[in-house]
């Protein structure tokens, strides 16, 4: 997301500048990018960014979702892959919601199925501890487990981030009850995290495409002077703006209602649907604008196009979120659709 994701402009510009500076410095030292760098994690911890939204009395920085969204966007802008969202916004939040302590040890979270398996768990193989959730009848249990105590089968997504299979026997885990509404909120938070990251990647793709079109000269004039290129870039910008607007609307509703707005599920679904559909247009058009140059490993375009494509299918596929939007609209019918959209 560009600038601030807070429509009130309340995010401290100096904080945003500091976030950018940290990731920019890191990429200067590691031009190719590193996945899950321990030294960077310590640096971010020293700056209070690892537990950015944690309460101050438990060692956090006491910030909110708008600041966290800026942090995620800054990491995306510099293509730095690190589990900030999974640690702070998901795993540590879940512990905090159940009055359990959380420190800066790298964490992620997973929800076991009936087989005691969770697939495509983000960052499990790079985590110190994993917050495991499983169903017991109509209720849920939660346990924080050392990663080495679980069976983890390593995997990766399209950009090399760990997406692993985690297996556990709930019968031997020492769990505590966790309310079903808390688990539902975890799902919403997870989905919105990916929408924020996708939008940040799309915004960076727009920036790269505009820079390329204005600086690249073909047949004696910049690419930006060709009408076909103008149309491609205009479509990129429009799709990215739509995805960002839908995501900001969902985030604003979530923050203002403390994740309890009656239409929040619909707004999150709209955000994910818009972001997922935008990826198709933005990625295709951006690579057409860049031509063969954009397909090379040396050019940075792929760091954002592949990221957007990878993230849009996590915590729910594009098809799944399209169906949720459709179902919500049909259930609201014509009489309730406007209030569903506006809250």
TrEMBL record:
<protein>
    <submittedName>
        <fullName>Acyl-CoA dehydrogenase</fullName>
    </submittedName>
</protein>
<keyword id="KW-0274">FAD</keyword>
<dbReference type="InterPro" id="IPR009100">
    <property type="entry name" value="AcylCoA_DH/oxidase_NM_dom_sf"/>
</dbReference>
<dbReference type="GO" id="GO:0050660">
    <property type="term" value="F:flavin adenine dinucleotide binding"/>
</dbReference>
<keyword id="KW-0285">Flavoprotein</keyword>
<dbReference type="Pfam" id="PF00441">
    <property type="entry name" value="Acyl-CoA_dh_1"/>
</dbReference>
<dbReference type="InterPro" id="IPR009075">
    <property type="entry name" value="AcylCo_DH/oxidase_C"/>
</dbReference>
<dbReference type="InterPro" id="IPR036250">
    <property type="entry name" value="AcylCo_DH-like_C"/>
</dbReference>
<feature type="domain" description="Acyl-CoA dehydrogenase/oxidase C-terminal">
    <location>
        <begin position="194"/>
        <end position="317"/>
    </location>
</feature>
<comment type="similarity">
    <text>Belongs to the acyl-CoA dehydrogenase family.</text>
</comment>
<dbReference type="InterPro" id="IPR037069">
    <property type="entry name" value="AcylCoA_DH/ox_N_sf"/>
</dbReference>
<dbReference type="GO" id="GO:0003995">
    <property type="term" value="F:acyl-CoA dehydrogenase activity"/>
</dbReference>
<keyword id="KW-0560">Oxidoreductase</keyword>
């Amino acid at each position: 997301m560009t600038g601030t994701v807070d429509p009130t402009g309340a995010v401290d510009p100096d904080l945003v500048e500091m976030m950018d500076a940290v990731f920019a410095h890191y990429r200067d030292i590691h031009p190719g990018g590193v996945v899950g760098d321990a030294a960077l994690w310590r640096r971010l911890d020293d700056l209070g960014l690892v537990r950015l939204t944690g309460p101050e009395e438990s060692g956090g920085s006491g910030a909110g979702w708008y600041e966290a969204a800026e942090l995620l966007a800054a990491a995306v802008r510099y293509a730095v892959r690190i589990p900030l969202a999974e640690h702070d916004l998901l795993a540590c939040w879940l512990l905090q919601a159940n009055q359990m302590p959380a420190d800066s040890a790298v964490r992620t979270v997973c929800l076991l199925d009936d087989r005691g398996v969770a697939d495509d768990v983000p960052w499990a193989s790079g985590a110190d501890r994993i917050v495991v959730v499983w169903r017991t009848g109509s209720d849920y249990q939660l346990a924080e487990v050392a990663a080495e105590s679980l069976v983890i089968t390593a995997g990766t997504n399209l950009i090399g981030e760990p997406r692993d299979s985690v297996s556990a026997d709930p019968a031997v885990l020492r769990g505590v009850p966790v309310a079903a509404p808390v688990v539902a909120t975890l799902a919403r938070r997870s989905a919105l995290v990916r929408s924020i990251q996708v939008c940040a990647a799309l915004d960076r793709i727009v920036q790269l495409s505009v820079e390329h079109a204005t600086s690249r000269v073909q047949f004696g004039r910049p690419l930006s002077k060709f009408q076909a290129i103008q149309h491609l870039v205009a479509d990129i910008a429009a799709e990215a703006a739509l995805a960002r607007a839908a995501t900001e609307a969902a985030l604003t509703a979530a923050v203002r209602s403390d994740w309890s707005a009656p239409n929040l599920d619909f707004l999150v679904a709209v955000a994910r649907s818009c972001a997922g559909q935008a990826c198709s247009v933005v990625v295709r058009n951006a690579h057409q604008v860049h031509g063969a140059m954009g397909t090379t490993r040396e050019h940075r375009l792929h760091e954002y196009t592949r990221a957007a494509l990878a993230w849009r299918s996590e915590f729910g596929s594009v098809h799944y979120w399209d169906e949720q939007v459709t179902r919500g609209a049909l259930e609201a019918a014509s009489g309730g659709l406007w209030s569903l959209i506006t809250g």
